[in-house]
């Protein structure tokens, strides 16, 4: 028999447990609580709490709460469709490989901080890198955030964790001197690749931006290039699209470098094409050109290190952090400071010599 109340209803089930039901604020239909109760008082307390939440606008949808996490994945997948293909591939890989097998079939109301901590601890124990764990945790957090916005759950359990992720190892990447840049460039067999190395070091372009550069983007009289496109080949097909920040920028270059670029043969609309006049694939260029030059020169560096080299050389030349940010095309100065303004070897000695000069002037 059900018990009539001013709001909601409680009835005893054949099992001896009690079921609480409440009127849905939108449809007015009676909705059963997601679980039963050991006694009438417990059911009554739950109903009182539910009414308070509904009145405050913080109540969750108990039916939605029983749906598995995987039902929120397609919406999240659509939300990052505009991102770069490498980013999309990383998120999808994390979901398919790590998140979905653990939580995909779990009702969202059953996912809590403890279960997430156990999952994270299991990945770390299995040898998954801190960066991959962080990426997977980020995907889980953002999918759960959609369930929160749908009011399937009151809060995001991915934010309620006790386990701490190990710090990701800091990468002390090299900064090349102008002499080392030239040594590396001259270790390249072809003029095209020599000029490309100098462009990365003194223009600070991302490799994808450099490989997408067209002759129409080169202004010889103004000694600058317009960076508006980027190339990706992570998905197996060449994809030409906007830059990483979706912004266009003008990059001023040394006149000698512009002159070298303009002396390159024009096989197509691209400044640095492959032998067929099409876009170079980074992976092929890295294997066939860059890595061989690294072996020949004895300089251990990656193409992206030349971007940090450019930032540090600009700082040495007197540029402000804001100048470097604009040159490299960063969204904010923090990225410039944190990742790219590295100290060139021997820089400290140069600064001490300048300090000694200032001290001598004051004497």
Describe this structure as you would to a colleague:
- With 363 residues, the protein is of the alpha+beta class.
- The protein has helices spanning 40-56, 62-65, 73-79, 85-103, 113-125, 130-149, 178-186, 191-203, 207-211, 255-262, 282-297, 305-316, 321-328, 333-340, 347-362; strands spanning 2-4, 9-12, 18-23, 30-32, 218-219, 224-227, 230-232, 239-241, 249-252.
- The chain has 15 helices and nine strands.
- It folds into three domains: 2-59, GCC-box Binding Domain, CATH 3.30.730; 69-159, Orthogonal Bundle (DNA polymerase, domain 1), CATH 1.10.150.130; 178-340, hpI Integrase, Chain A, CATH 1.10.443.10.
- Helix 7 (178-186) runs antiparallel to helix 8 (191-203) and helix 7 (178-186) crosses helix 11 (282-297).
Sum up the structure in keywords:
single chain, GCC-box Binding Domain, DNA polymerase, domain 1, 3 domains, 4-stranded antiparallel sheet, 3-stranded antiparallel sheet, 15 helices, 9 strands
The radius of gyration is 30 Å
Helix and strand composition category = alpha+beta
Which CATH class of the largest domain applies here? Mainly Alpha
Order of helices and strands: EEEEHHHHHHHHHEEEEEHHHHHH
Helix content bin: 40-55%
CATH fold description of the largest domain: hpI Integrase, Chain A
Major sheet summary line: 4 strands, antiparallel
How does the overall form come out from the CA principal axes?
elongated
| Uncertain residue segments | none
Q: Indicate the proportion of strand residues.
A: 5-15%
In CATH, the homologous superfamily of the largest domain goes by the name Intergrase catalytic core
N-to-C span: 100 Å
Total strand count, please? 9
The order of strands across the largest sheet is 1-2-3-4
How many structural domains? 3
CATH architecture of the largest domain: Orthogonal Bundle
Number of helices: 15
Average pLDDT rating: 86
């Amino acid at each position: 028999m059900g018990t009539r109340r001013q709001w909601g209803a409680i009835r005893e089930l054949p099992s001896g447990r009690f079921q609480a039901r409440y009127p849905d604020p939108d449809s007015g239909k009676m909705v059963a609580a997601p679980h039963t109760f050991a006694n009438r008082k417990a059911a009554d307390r739950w109903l009182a709490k539910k009414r308070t939440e509904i009145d405050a606008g913080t109540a969750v949808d108990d039916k939605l709460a029983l749906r598995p996490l995987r039902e929120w994945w397609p919406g999240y997948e659509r939300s990052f469709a505009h991102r770069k293909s490498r980013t999309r591939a990383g998120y999808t890989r994390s979901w398919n490989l790590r998140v979905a097998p653990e939580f995909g079939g779990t009702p969202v109301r059953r996912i809590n901080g403890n279960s997430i901590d156990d999952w994270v601890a299991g990945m770390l124990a299995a040898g998954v890198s801190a960066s991959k764990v962080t990426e997977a945790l980020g995907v889980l957090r953002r999918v759960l955030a959609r369930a929160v916005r749908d009011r399937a759950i009151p809060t995001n359990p991915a934010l309620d964790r006790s386990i701490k992720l190990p710090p990701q190892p800091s990468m002390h990447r090299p900064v090349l001197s102008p002499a080392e840049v030239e040594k590396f460039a001259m270790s390249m067999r072809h003029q095209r690749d020599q000029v490309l190395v100098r462009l990365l070091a003194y223009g600070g372009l991302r490799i994808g931006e450099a490989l997408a550069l067209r002759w129409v983007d080169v202004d010889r009289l103004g000694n600058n290039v317009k960076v508006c496109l980027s190339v990706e080949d992570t998905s197996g097909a060449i994809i030409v699209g906007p830059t990483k920040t979706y912004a266009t920028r003008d990059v001023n270059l040394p006149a000698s470098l512009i002159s070298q670029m303009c002396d390159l043969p024009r096989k197509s609309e691209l400044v640095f094409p492959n032998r067929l006049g099409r876009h170079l694939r980074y992976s092929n260029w890295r294997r066939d050109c860059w890595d061989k030059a690294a072996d020949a020169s004895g300089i251990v560096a990656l193409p992206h290190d030349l971007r940090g080299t450019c930032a540090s050389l600009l700082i040495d030349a007197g540029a402000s952090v804001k100048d470097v940010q604009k040159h490299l095309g960063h969204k904010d100065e923090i990225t410039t400071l944190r990742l790219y303004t590295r100290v060139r070897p021997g820089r400290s000695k140069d600064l001490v010599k300048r300090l000694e000069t200032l001290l001598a002037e004051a004497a």
